[in-house]
Amino acid sequence: MITIKLKDGSTKSFEQGISAFDVAKALSSSLAKKAIVAKVDGALVDLATALTQDSDLEILTRESPEALEIIRHDTAHLLAEAAKELYGDDVQVTIGPAIENGFYYDFARDKPFTPDDLTALEKKMKEIVDRDEPIVREEWDRDEAIQFFKWMGEHYKAEIISNIPSGETISLYRQGQFIDLCRGPHAPSTKKVGKAFKLMKLAGAYWRGNSDNAMLQRIYGTAWASEKDLENYLVQLEEAEKRDHRKLGKQMGLFHLQEEAVGSVFWHPKGWRLYSILKEYIRQKIEKYDYQEVNTPLMLDRALWEKSGHWDKFRENMFIVSDEDDRTLAMKPMNCPCHVEIFKQGTKSYRDLPLRMAEFGHCHRNEPSGALHGIMRVRSFVQDDAHIFCREDQILSETKSFCGLLKEVYQDLGFDQFFVKFSDRPEKRAGTDETWDKAEENLRNALEKMDIPYAPNPGEGAFYGPKLEFVLKDALGRDWQCGTLQLDFILPERLGATYVGEDGNHHHPVMIHRAILGTFERFIGILIESYAGKFPLWLAPLQVVVASITDEANAYVEDVVASLKKEGLRVEHDLRNEKISYKIREHSLQKVPYIFVIGKNEIENRTIAIRKLGTQGQEVMTLDDAVKHVKNLGKMPR
Q1: CATH code, 24
Q2: How many domains does the chain have?
Q3: What are phi and psi of 77, to 5 degrees?
Q4: Crossing angle of helices 395-412 and 269-288, rounded to 10°
């Protein structure tokens, strides 16, 4: 007999070799009916897995968050089976992983897939679900598996297996007549996968991501635990398309992008005004938190990047230039080494710390062209970057202060929800394990003392230290990783930064790298999509348009504009010889928060007819009241 500890903490005894599914059935027939996979001692396994020793066991249903990735991977297998049934030997299957919100599968096929093929594949996938085919794990000898897939004409699968070390057991999963290489686990049958899926789009992908290899056809799909979740996701996608920052940026006259400057933004007057407002807001916030603003060179000699360690880690993403003396310079991809160089000027005492150094640093990174996306992913950008040089005993207070600043900023910008990921040491890193132990312990202790919950993000730290990633949620419930805090014991030592301690000796400061927005370009893209272009009044690049109904109103329109400008409001007039309905529609499409309409009645009574974006009808106020109303609502948060 073996003892099984269940999720609720209770224990039960079963015969050795019982399957996880039979345990579920013994516990509850309804649980067995809903079960997708099991978790044994923390590892996900098939329900058919035999339990041979005392274990912790959890039965996961489709409502379990961890089961969703299994469902998505299962759905990729449904797609591959459907492709083989429809196209036979004309198609070879390669790989099909689960990804965020869904899955994809790469196929080798001479004839391009079409949207009609996606419709046919989706229909066939649903037929396979209805057939309720058992999904069964089989273990094969490596060499036998290679020969089997070659015999089938699946040469890509054979190549994958041939790269697995000789002597290892290979796991294959069979459903109906289809068999695929996979580690698993999987649901027990195709019916358990459900029909909450949809094939979304086609794309090209090189085999193994190498441009020297064959081009494959990739089919993307989305899959969810329920039809309702799928419907909600598709509605969200539809809404996201309406809010696409590229579309709204053009509609609102904020910016444009063009091939002659790939990865860089052409900011138009309204867009640059928005950019400047956001920068001034951040500037006021960091002054409140005692940061000193600096500015550092755009290009630096490779010697500094080699010394800092960035040359080895980021060389492929740097733009390199040479001067007339044949010196190699790199356009900076980040600001941190520059701030260390400023810190090193003059002698610093322990009494000078913490020293908080901020920069709106213009950086460049040679991102792959395929990764660029509007202003969300660019090659030329500005970070709201800062570095805090402090003593080890100041880590907690500085982390706490930064978290308070970040929370203020996010709330002012309309983001009330965010969560934290803790990213620890990556495989490729600088420094000793002892240094990393100390850095991770300090950062983890700071979070725990502040009672901030966090999710582990293993191996995703910076090469010089662990980091916190602050992930906010937008109006559509989408996650965006923006803010970061990185704890660095390594870079100050590598670059020779020291301060004189209370003991009279020289010590290396701790360096806290931190950003709130991340980059202005990406964050503005997030703001555009979250607000659907309808910015809060204080942030709107154009707050009021004063529009005339008749030429007789032009003089009064100018008086109104002057009164608004006197109060520091951002205002324009519209005196064009167009119908007022046309003017209102045009300025509404450009998301202007307030339109002041001026006609004969307004001239006679010295009033304003106010139309607020997103509301029906209009409100009449005196000129003085209208100016005060907009001025009060349009104040920048302090």
Answers
A1: 3.10.20.30
A2: 4
A3: -65, -35
A4: 140
Q: Say yes or no: 343 and 486 in one domain.
A: yes
- Contact of 96 with 76, CB cutoff 8 Å: yes
User: In 3-state terms, what secondary structure has residue 589?
Assistant: helix
Q: Which residues, 6 or more positions from 111, have their beta carbon under 8 angstroms from its beta carbon?
A: 90
Q: Quick check: helix, strand or coil at residue 493? A: helix
Q: Residues 546, 561: contact at Cβ < 8 Å?
A: yes
Shared domain for 275 and 303, answered yes or no, is: yes
Assess whether 173 and 216 both reside in one domain: yes
In this prediction, residue 1 carries a pLDDT of: 85
Sequence-distant (6+) residues with CB within 8 A of 612 are 593, 594, 619
- Number of C-alpha atoms within 13 angstroms, CB side, residue 312? 9
Could you tell me if 283 and 430 lie in one domain?
Answer: yes
Is residue 71 assigned to a domain? yes
Matching residue, tokens 């492929």: 316
* Opening angle at CA 290, ends 289 and 292, nearest 5: 125
List, for residues 344-384, the tens digit of each pLDDT value. 999 999 999 999 999 999 999 999 888 899 999 999 999 99
Residue type, 259: E
Residues assigned a catalytic role:
336, 365, 383, 385, 387, 467, 513
Residue 188: closest CA among 379, 341, 60 = 60
What CATH number did the domain enclosing 552 receive? 3.40.50.800
Which has more pLDDT, 515 or 9? 515
The CATH number that applies at residue 457 is 3.30.930.10
Strand order in the sheet with 55-61: 11-14, 2-5, 55-61, 35-40, 43-45
Residue 9: alpha-carbon gap to chain centroid: 36
3-class SS of residue 556: helix
Mean pLDDT to the nearest integer, 394-401:
94
CA distance 348 to 350: 7
Q: Collapsing DSSP states into helix, strand and coil, what is residue 120?
A: helix
Question: Does 109 have pLDDT greater than 80?
Answer: yes
Contact 473, 467 (CB under 8 A): no
3-state helix, strand, coil in the chain (%, to 5): 40, 30, 30
Count the helices and strands in the chain (H runs, E runs).
Answer: 21, 33
Residues 226 and 277 in one domain: no
pLDDT in tens, 157-208: 999 999 888 878 899 999 999 999 998 899 999 999 999 999 999 999 999 8
pLDDT number for residue 264: 96
Q: Are 484 and 359 part of one and the same domain? A: yes
Given a cut of 90, is residue 24 above it in pLDDT? no
Q: Is the same domain home to 183 and 299? A: no
Q: Which domain holds residue 117?
A: 66-239
- Mean predicted lDDT score pLDDT of the chain: 93
- 568 Cβ neighbours under 8 A, 6+ residues apart: 631
DSSP states along 87-104 = HGGG-EE----EETTEEE
DSSP secondary structure letter of residue 426: -
